[in-house]
């Protein structure tokens, strides 16, 4: 993975509630990044494809077609940049695709600074400030990916390949509406087989696994932000705050508001 994170910002735009992209695909001579604050969009960049929402940053290397489609009104940061030390072809491929940042408080703080700096970044002091924010963002992304890779490398379990794929599928889609039938069909097994085999591999059902991920994110957002419950629900894959509150209370034994009060210092 890249060791030299020094970069040069070229352009920055902050879009609010964009309902569709002007171009369904584009190929840029510079590196580009979509950093999502609200909403979701589908993307495809070479071999990388999926959906992205809050906490996700989608990076496209230069000269690669970036296919994108808004799935809901999208608020995001659009960034163009170049590396001070250009990565090689293999490294470029590794840097492209979706990166996920779990530290919501740190991420939202960086986003606020980027919005304050704005798009006039061709001269100082805005250029230096945006450079600092973006390099900090990249290092945060790299730290979180390293943690995930280390956890996978040192895991003592060795589930069957299709269950590893099932877990990956759920991780990628945990915070959006999903149907387990779609996963079982993709694996060529029945929903009952999926549940039984996933439980044998990971000691939990697919539904319980996703609920755990969603509630973990909800707890972090309640503790680390002052965002309203409906906003938090949307970032966790639930339709609204009322439904999140029902699940949260049933699983954790207290309401979201009580959890937030408990963890306020």
From TrEMBL:
Keywords: Activator, DNA-binding, Transcription, Transcription regulation. PROSITE patterns: HTH_ARAC_FAMILY_1 (PS00041), HTH_ARAC_FAMILY_2 (PS01124). It comes from the Bacteria. GO terms for molecular function: DNA-binding transcription factor activity; sequence-specific DNA binding. Pfam families: HTH_18. The keyword Transcription regulation applies. SUPFAM superfamilies: Homeodomain-like, Regulatory protein AraC. This is AraC family transcriptional regulator. It comes from Cohnella rhizosphaerae.
């Amino acid at each position: 993975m890249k060791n030299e994170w020094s970069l040069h910002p070229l352009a920055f735009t902050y879009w609010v509630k964009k309902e569709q992209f002007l171009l369904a695909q584009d190929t840029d001579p510079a590196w580009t990044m979509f950093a999502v604050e609200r909403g979701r969009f589908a993307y495809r960049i070479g071999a990388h494809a999926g959906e992205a929402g809050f906490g996700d940053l989608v990076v496209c290397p230069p000269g690669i077609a970036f296919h994108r489609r808004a799935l809901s009104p999208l608020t995001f940061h659009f960034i163009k940049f170049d590396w001070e030390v250009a990565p090689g072809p293999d490294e470029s491929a590794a840097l492209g695709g979706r990166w996920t940042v779990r530290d919501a408080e740190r991420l939202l703080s960086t986003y606020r600074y980027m919005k304050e700096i704005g798009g006039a970044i061709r001269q100082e002091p805005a250029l230096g400030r945006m450079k600092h924010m973006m390099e900090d963002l990249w290092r945060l992304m790299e730290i979180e990916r390293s943690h995930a890779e280390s956890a996978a490398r040192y895991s003592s379990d060795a589930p069957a390949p299709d269950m590893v794929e099932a877990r990956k599928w759920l991780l990628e889609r945990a915070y959006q509406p999903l149907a387990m039938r779609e996963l079982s069909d993709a694996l060529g097994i029945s929903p009952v087989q999926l549940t039984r085999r996933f439980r044998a591999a990971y000691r939990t059902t697919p539904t319980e696994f996703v609920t755990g991920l969603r509630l973990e994110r909800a707890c972090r957002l309640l503790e680390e932000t002052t965002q309203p419950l409906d906003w938090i629900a949307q970032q966790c894959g639930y339709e609204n705050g009322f439904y999140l509150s029902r699940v949260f209370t049933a699983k954790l034994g207290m309401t979201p508001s009580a959890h937030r009060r408990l963890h306020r210092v």
